[in-house]
């Protein structure tokens, strides 16, 4: 079983990614299925260092998703106010 502090961090990351995935360009269902598959594939990992590395990768993915959404919003606003 995973150590409790890491388990809480993994659950928090999963929920955060699930929330961010709602606006994914290919659809929330697509993102949720891929997210669940990724977490299920790695559920048997026991080594705390490996778990921390995977958490760091997940946080990187979350930041990339946020950047994608900000860029999409920026482009939409730019289209409204500026002719290209």
Automatic annotation (TrEMBL):
Record's protein name: Electron transfer flavoprotein regulatory factor 1
GO BP annotation list: negative regulation of oxidative phosphorylation; respiratory electron transport chain
Organism: Crenichthys baileyi (White River springfish)
InterPro entries named among the record's database cross-references: Complex1_LYR_dom (IPR008011), Complex1_LYR_ETFRF1_LYRM5 (IPR045296), ETFRF1 (IPR052000)
Family of the protein in this entry: Belongs to the complex I LYR family.
A single Gene Ontology CC term: mitochondrion
Domain Complex 1 LYR protein: residue ranges: 9-59
Pfam families: Complex1_LYR (PF05347)
